[in-house]
Write a structure and sequence with these properties.
This protein is globular. The protein has a 22-stranded antiparallel beta barrel. Strands 1-7-8-5-6 form a 5-stranded mixed β-sheet. Strands 2-3-4 form a 3-stranded antiparallel β-sheet, with no helix packed on it. Helix content is 4%, strand content 53%. By secondary structure, it is mainly beta. The protein is built from 5 helices and 41 strands. Strand 29 and strand 30 form a beta hairpin. It has one domain: Maltoporin, Chain A, CATH 2.40.170.
């Protein structure tokens, strides 16, 4: 495949290697690299210390450390992600309980990270530095300091969003010391990857940082599929250690991929078919690629950010973050579709292919200003955070369609057990229809923590956000018998639907601290999600589309009670919580394809977490989530006899467990092994998942009905030859468990779990 830029014709890997070798050899890494002292900056720590416990999130909107924040928040620091061999956001989130993944609608795979958190689609609630990130790319971690998973409705934090919460990625920025690291990896399916992270202090108050990544090769367990990318993230900070600080940071990522449409579900455990041959058929090999050689995916991502910070007085800091970003995706994907033909000799069985093209152009322009401070009112000590935000988000998506000739052209079906990617491909081109939508938002927020009692034993936490939004979309669509029954099929229809409203979201919480290192809390929060809230696109059809401009925002609220403790002199954290989230005014599709807003979903359960250092050399990160999901009010058929009410939310497991532990052996292991050896591993368990129709699994005649539970074991071994050079070996799925990682909505195709595979990494430090 061709490189996306002439600058990197030697390959993305060569580019990253050149950047790393360009580092000054005389620079020495220090044991404790320091960040700026502002609360909104993540502290950068020496990876040799491998501290995997975070004390706070990066957002300036949170006024308290994690132990005193009345909400479940999981923070995955880069040190833990490096140990686990996590290279992408999806890799990182697999190690977090309560998170699953899905493929998308029928023949069209979802772009980017299709994350489901506590039973709700969270793909549109992913943030970069607390700014919404609607990138269609699979997000890479080369420029990420930590990943923060904030659970429960968070409308007060970020405005419109889903009921389950959101995910925030924190960018790497300069700090006041010299540090340079690099990694060179090789793994299964000829996967090659190189990264460099270089930080240099210039004078007393200025520092620069450069992060680079290059990767190419295949995907473990999958034929033909490829991932090629290169990226760089330069940044510079002025005024480090002074009252006024300025940071300019950018990120650029370019991907040239062969996308993966998944594997036909025929024969997979839990698959059902009315055809006796299909019901008893053998499953296709998980390596089978049902796409075509002509498939492609090109992604171009550019982010430009400027952060200004100034300490007005002791305890008072004002900050401003401005960002412009633009992301384009051009993709043609071929995927298996519907039930296969299963008559006669199994070697002749075929499955239809769906070939779809897509193009997305996303633009974002935002400015956020925040003021933090401390004041007193009588016996109450207040720590507050307030601010205003202006956001403009836009997305342009032309409609692609298969070129039709005479006689009508159809895509060649794929052989079920021996698909041929060299089959002729139908042409997919824009058909003239398009959607060009944007959302403009102005918002103001205020958060306050009031403390009182001996040693601030009691705390009241409250936050409110009010925002005014306007979404409008220029559309050109072609009528169908369903969408515009009064028009001839294929008639072009233009429209400019508009939806605008004012949203008010809030959260309140109470904290009791029986000891300085622990808390008991109870909290309540709300969120709202208007039509077009994720992709800024409204529909011209006001009846049969979930983005109809006349629909009201869906609403959610959540109640959580729990406890958090910092143990072992602050090295280790433990938390437990009971939660209940209800999403109301949900958009439910009727049997006649109309949309109504009486839908209601409920998720309740318990979550437990442990993270940190049990000893100086022994680390543990573990979590457990038990959730009970229910469609409290669902689709009712036109005859009133069939209902989805009472059914669990599709593909939402009741139980999920993640455990990761590592131990550094401090003793020498012989004359040639005189450095520390680290051994570790993890276990991931996900209980069975089901798909129901009308709350009756027996009514499903084809597709995957149940996804079996599974256990995946991963392992890592690392050895430091010197303080500056080490080798790490990650083995994924050590026991080679075969499992279903995600399923599309119709249950006709799936993504198989990664089989046993490895990644060998040489880590260098200067």
């Amino acid at each position: 495949m061709s490189s996306p830029s002439c600058l990197f014709r030697l390959s993305p890997i060569a580019a990253a290697m050149l950047a790393f070798h360009a580092m000054p050899a005389s620079a020495e890494a220090t044991a404790d690299a320091a960040a700026t002292t502002t609360l909104s900056t993540v502290k950068v720590e020496d990876s040799a210390a491998s501290d995997i416990k975070a004390d706070q999130v990066a957002s300036p909107k949170f006024t308290q450390p994690l132990v005193d924040t009345p909400q479940t928040i999981s923070v995955l620091k880069k040190e833990l992600l490096i140990q686990q061999g996590a290279l992408s956001l999806s890799d990182a989130l697999r190690q977090t309980p309560g998170i699953t993944f899905q493929q998308g609608e029928n023949g069209n795979s979802t772009s980017g990270d299709a994350v489901f958190l506590r039973g709700f689609d969270t793909q549109g609630s992913i943030f970069l530095d607390n700014i919404r990130d609607i990138s269609p790319a699979v997000r890479d971690l080369f420029n990420i300091e930590q990943v923060e998973i904030v659970k429960g409705p968070a409308g007060a934090d970020n405005g419109r969003g889903v009921a389950a919460g959101y995910i925030n990625l924190v960018s790497k920025t300069p700090f006041a010391d010299d540090l340079a690291t690099g990694s060179f990896s090789y793994g299964t399916r000829d996967r090659r990857r190189a990264t460099a992270d270089i930080n240099r202090r210039i004078g007393d108050t200025v520092a620069v940082r450069l992060n680079v990544v290059g990767q190419d090769g295949g995907v473990a367990g999958r034929d033909v599929v490829e991932r090629q990318q290169w990226g760089l993230a330069p940044s510079i900070s002025f005024g480090l250690g002074t009252p006024t600080r300025v940071t300019l940071f950018t990120q650029h990522l370019f991907q040239d991929n062969i996308p993966d449409g998944g594997v036909t579900a025929l024969g997979v455990s839990g698959y059902r078919s009315a055809n006796a041959n299909a019901a008893s058929a053998a499953a296709a090999p998980i390596s089978n690629f049902y796409g075509l050689d002509a498939d492609f995916e090109d992604i171009d991502l550019n982010v430009y950010s400027l952060r200004l910070e100034h300490d007005l007085a002791p305890g008072y800091t004002v900050s401003n973050l401005s960002r412009y970003s633009r992301t384009t995706q051009d993709r043609v994907l071929t995927a298996p579709l519907n039930a296969p033909t299963t008559n006669g000799d199994p070697s002749t069985w075929t499955v239809a292919r769906s070939r779809q093209g897509s193009y997305r152009d996303n633009d974002l322009l935002t400015n956020q200003t925040n003021l933090r401070g401390v004041f007193r009112t009588g016996v109450l000590k207040h720590e507050f955070s307030s601010g205003i935000e202006f956001i403009h988000e836009a997305q342009y998506t032309p409609t692609y369609a298969v070129t039709v000739t005479t006689p009508a052209q159809a895509q060649t079906p794929a052989n079920v057990y021996n698909p041929n990617p060299s089959d002729p491909a139908v042409t997919v081109t824009p058909n003239g229809a398009f959607s060009d939508g944007d959302t403009t938002t102005a918002a103001a927020y205020f958060f306050d923590t009031a403390k009182f009692g001996a040693h601030d034993q009691f705390q009241l936490n409250a936050g409110v956000r009010i925002e005014r939004y306007r979404t409008e979309t220029d559309l050109l669509v072609y009528s169908t018998a369903t969408t515009f029954p009064n028009l001839a099929v294929g008639t072009p229809v233009t429209a400019r639907p508009v939806n605008k409203d004012t949203l008010l979201s809030y959260k309140v919480g109470g904290v009791y601290k029986p000891l300085d290192n622990g808390s008991l809390y109870a909290a309540y929060g709300t969120s709202q999600r208007p039509p077009g809230g994720d992709n800024f696109t409204l529909s011209a059809n006001t009846v049969a589309n979930i983005n109809g401009p006349t629909l009201e925002p869906s609403e959610a609220d959540s109640v959580e009670v729990g406890s958090k403790w910092d143990l072992l002199d602050g090295r280790f954290a433990a938390n437990a919580a009971l939660f209940r989230t209800v999403s109301r005014n949900d958009l439910a599709r009727q049997v006649d394809d109309s949309i109504v807003q009486y839908g209601k979903r409920r998720v309740q359960g318990v979550e437990l977490g442990l993270v940190g250092n049990l000893t100086a050399n022994w680390q543990l990160s573990a979590g457990y989530t038990h959730q009970n999901t229910k469609v409290a009010e669902g689709v009712i058929a036109t005859d009133g006899t069939s209902t989805q009410s009472g059914a669990p939310i599709n593909f939402s497991p009741k139980d999920s467990v993640t455990v990761w532990s590592s131990y550094k052996l401090p003793v020498a292991l012989g004359a040639y092994l005189n450095g520390p050896l680290t051994l570790g591993g993890g276990v991931r368990y996900l209980s069975s998942q089901s798909r129901t129709v009308n709350n009756n699994p027996d009514s499903i005649t084809t597709g995957i009905v149940t996804v079996d539970d599974y256990v995946v074991v991963d392992a890592v071994a690392g050895y430091d030859f010197t303080p500056k050079v080490g080798l790490q070996a990650n083995v994924y799925n050590l026991l080679d468990e075969r499992y279903v990682a995600s399923v599309n909505n119709s249950g006709q195709r799936y993504s198989p779990g990664i089989p046993r595979s490895y990644l060998l990494t040489l880590n260098v430090r200067y």
